[in-house]
Amino acid sequence: MTVVDEVSQGAWGRERLRQFLNGAPSFNSVPYTDHGFVNHTELARQLGLSQACVAKNQDLIREFEDRTADGYAQDRLTKLCGFIDQGFRDRTLHYANEKLDRQQAFEAIDVGRKAALSPRIEAALVGFDKRAREIGYTMKPGMPAVFLPPGSQRERIYLAVQNCIENGEPIWKHGRVVKSKIAERMGIDPANLSLHPEVFDHFNLLHGNWEKIEAELERRVDAAITASIEAREVDVVVGKLEHRAAIQSQIPEAFSTAERRARMTALFKRRDREALEAGYICVRKEKQLQRLSELLASGKFTRELYGTANLKALRKELSIPRFHQDALELIASFEKEKITRLKADPLCAEIEGRYFSFGAMCDLGYPESYVMSMATCFRKSYSELKGPEAGRYHLALMKLFIWLKHQDRVVAAVANNIHIKGAVKDVDWLYVLMRYKDSVDERSQPRLIAVVNNLSRNLAVAGLVPWLACGIPNGRRKAPTGTIKSFAEVAPTPVDGHESRVDGFMEFIENFTNSDNFSLFAEADRVDSKNFYAALKQDFLINGTEGPLEVVAATRFIIERRQELFNERFKTLIAEGVQTLEEGDRLASLGQDPDLYWHRLCDGELSQGEKSRLTREFFPNPDTEDRTALKNSLRLIRDKFKRKAPLEGEEGYWFFKRRYQEIAPSSEMQAYLLPTNALMLACASIYFQGSGVNLPVGRGLLEKCYQPSNDKNYRRVVGFKAKAKGKPIIYYFEVRSDECLALEVALKWGKYLRDVAPPEHEGLMFLQKVGPRIQPINQYGLRKFFEQQRSTIDGIEQVALTPQMWRPTLLLLAAIDNGGKLGVALALAQHTEGVSGHYYDRMPLRLMHEVRLRYFKELLEAAVIHAVPGSPAYIGLDPKTIHRRLADAIDVGIGIACADPYEHSAGQSVCDKLDCFRCKQMMISIDAESLSWLIIWRSSLEQAEGDWVRDHPDRWQEEFLPFLSLVEVVEELMQEAMYLPIWLEAEEIAGQR
Questions:
Q1: What is the pTM of this model?
Q2: What is the 8-class DSSP label of residue 958?
Q3: Which listed residue, 627, 715, 731, 984, has the most CB atoms within 10 A of its CB?
Q4: What residues contact residue 361 under an 8 Å CB cut-off, 6+ apart?
Q5: Same domain, yes or no, for 443 and 454?
Q6: Range of the domain at 427
Q7: Residue 62 carries which DSSP code?
Q8: Lowest-pLDDT range, 213-222, 413-422, 736-745?
Q9: Are residues 711 and 799 both part of a single domain?
């Protein structure tokens, strides 16, 4: 067929080629080269096409090659089997050193030794080598061991080597022919010689002494290894003895070639493995382990509290910078055995991974059964405490019982009989504890009393010591001067030169609070009063005189203004943090799916060049204007690493280390995907400030504790306080409040922190990221964050406020809002009256109390003066004032006496409360005079009931209705025959009055 010109062969030539290749039944119908590919020149000649036409349609040819590759390979292998079988029968296969000549086989099936198919051919020939050995194959007599096609390059190489040997030319090194010298003699590339290893193996075996040389080198290296193992002077690192470098320097020729290095490496591995299996250990390490074992056994380097070894002390004693793996394993084994023994020890109590031993009490003479019961009681009583706090109680308990054993007389008798139930009376036990309290200095007594009373109560529950209802008396309660201040009791740094602006205001406050009618404030040196004066004065000094001119109102003004400044800053941080997270989500959503490239980048077999090309395709450097690299980085971190940017030592850091340098620091990338510490601390701060919750309770808040309430406009937050014995602490916040905003942000975005947090922290509301760790916010970080924000807020940058002030501030506000009464604040804090003084004994509340006390005294004064005719004029009082006061004095509840007027105030002052109807100290004298006032009081209440129920139902229910019920109960009790005449006389007197 005539070849048409190239211009006219476009579509026609392609269609001709497609029809031919599609119609070809197998690869045999198409001309192939010896490498398994179509011969383009022969194909063009056969089809009458130009070379250019065939080149343009290589896609059709590659498709055909892929389709017929397996067939081609199978055909070559089949042809190889036939050739080898025929050669075995005819004994025409070249065979030497138990191997068939590869060149003869490759040429027989028309496949080059560098073809893609050559590995499969080589694998088949290895099987034929084995077959030749099994059948004892030998060549025909007179056949050379090497296949030498006439005129071939192999024959020329063979002759060149033979001539060099005959002429005595220096072509030998280490007992082998140097290929580079033969290539130089022939003027060819040395790489061509690598295709004919059989030629060189033939001459090396025939004329060289390399086997003897190699055997001698291997023997010398083996002897050196044996000597090193027997000397036991080198250590083991990563499963290998560290004698390789020394032996290599002694016998460098044994490692001169790649082949020798491979054999010697195998020898080292085998001998090292044998030594390690036989228990090899170097002498130095053996002595060190023996010394370490002795130190551990001595008990001097063990932390008994934890059951662990003191590594720092051990390293110092051994004079080593760090422990090797064997030493660490020995220590771990010792610690495991120690902890197992402590866990099983009945004289040991485990709390939070700490082991508190009571064995020393047995040495002092206490019965073992008693000590075992004490250890059990201690573990049950203090298991909910943190380890350090439990340690404080354990130390106090041991000191107490050790002290008992070193006393005499009554205390000694108690110590000897304390283990016998009922043998020690409660008064004797109280005497012992009082003696113990007196044995310490006065400054330490308050703390000692609290700890010992706590221990005594818990031990008494288990029957180990007598029960004391009140414990050791704590003496007269002093005004709390060292308690945590509120926001209204901290003054900023003084500002000089402006005091005249507020002198009038301060004079008003001091006169108001220290007047003669306010006996409580006659003591002007009260520390907390001074704190309040200083804060109030300085705040108005800086911010002008336009504030409220009344002490309690001024207190609320200062607190609210400072809280508002903090809340504004916290809300700004939250808004910025959320904006960054939303921007991060938006950028990540625009990034490429990591499945397109990540598994390929992680493929260890991918070449470095291909890996670099793939990386730059998705992560260009410098980044493009549309921030492609940043978007893809954020998408990768979000989808493959749960939004946690890998840091050093974590999976994926090998890739991101360079990205942090090229695109953005890890902290900046992380801020796009996980809430920053500033965001989470700002959310927590708004919640703490709004609820006044204890910081430990708030830090342990669970995400599920933020719940809907019965009122759709409110949300409730349920916390738990350890000292409240598991009872919930519930706060309600309006949906639109700052607290709900902060908690919802922490709930929504903090979810991503909880997803990567350890199991023990994954349910907490407030988490933070510290390096690679996710952990709960801590008080030190919160305090540092709080101080950083305060220092940047105008107006309070010089005010030393701390997070611990949130709680007393909120409770102070709660008491102020309820007229100075502590009921709401007590309930909010879950406090009893016994512990509330430290939170509520504040100057503004004392002031409010004093106002009520003065009002009560004025009423009492009016009642007394009114009973004496002419007395108002005698003492210089306006009778109208007395009558006006007396109109209010009827509400006091005359007819009721108090058994102990100091009961409610713990002995400090006379009780000023009006809730006599619920007080256990209330007394009603059964005489007609006293009862008549109760009857008059009931009549007044009944007449006023309608107005009060209509206008002030809450006050009626809280204050007056209980009094009415009280009088009705008294009347019912007085209906008995022996009391009825007195009640009738009282009614007659009341009617006359």
A1: 0.43
A2: I
A3: 715
A4: 371, 374, 398, 401
A5: yes
A6: 346-464
A7: H
A8: 213-222
A9: yes
